[in-house]
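Figure 3 (text version): structure tokens given as input.
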């Protein structure tokens, strides 16, 4: 998989890909992540990528020219399955979407900024608009990191315990069950007996019941 992230703040996005599971997936060659500085595609002397909104109003708008230049240059090299734009008015990210994205070969993520991007970019270049929740971030970079993280960890081989991603919350529309580790008794706070029983089938049943109970309590909407 290849993820090309177009941003005005490439440095902000460096760290998330230099640690833990994402770093390992990159080192193993399962995914290539490129941070592309949108300013490199600006033809302005000051390398600006935004301008005042037609019709007036507060806030700057990301212009079509540098974005079009950048996307054209990328598309000249390879085909892309999705060109994603991060925006609070996009479709809200969920596990189903991440599962789908994890099956793609190449994607672009354009990080939104300022008051947003010229609508013609969204109309003509973007194939998917994603929000990571009903709140407003200062820019799309953290959203791009969240999307990338949720997708990369699903690529087979990214997580050492192959079954681990399948038992995450939201796979099967259920929240994950509670987990415990040693000591089995901490100052009288005990681990449920069943987990110490060694009886795999009973443990699996218990975990499923706990998942269901937790989902009913915390996210009944997922059970509908
Ligand atoms: N940019 C600003 N807020 C955002 C959000 N909630 N999701 C995705 N991109 C954003």
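Below: residues designed for each position.
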């Amino acid at each position: 998989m290849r993820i090309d992230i177009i941003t005005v703040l490439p440095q902000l996005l460096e760290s998330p890909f230099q640690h833990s599971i994402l770093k390992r997936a990159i080192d193993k060659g399962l995914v290539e992540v490129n941070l592309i500085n949108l300013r490199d595609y600006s033809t302005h002397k000051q390398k600006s990528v935004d301008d005042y909104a037609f019709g007036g109003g507060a806030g700057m708008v990301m212009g079509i020219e540098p974005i079009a230049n950048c996307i054209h240059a990328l598309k000249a090299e390879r085909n892309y399955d999705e060109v994603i734009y991060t925006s609070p008015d996009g479709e809200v990210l969920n596990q189903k979407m991440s599962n789908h994205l994890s099956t793609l070969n190449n994607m672009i993520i354009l990080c939104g900024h300022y008051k947003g991007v010229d609508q013609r970019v969204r109309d003509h270049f973007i194939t998917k608009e994603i929000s990571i929740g009903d709140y407003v971030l200062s820019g799309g970079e953290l959203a791009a990191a969240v999307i990338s993280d949720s997708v990369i960890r699903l690529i087979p081989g990214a997580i050492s315990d192959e079954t681990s991603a399948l038992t995450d919350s939201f796979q099967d529309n259920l929240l994950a069950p509670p987990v415990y580790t040693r000591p089995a008794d901490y100052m009288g706070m005990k681990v449920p007996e069943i987990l110490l029983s060694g009886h795999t089938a009973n443990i699996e049943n218990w975990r499923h019941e706990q998942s269901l109970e937790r989902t009913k309590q915390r996210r009944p909407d997922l059970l509908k």
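The chain has a mean pLDDT of 96.
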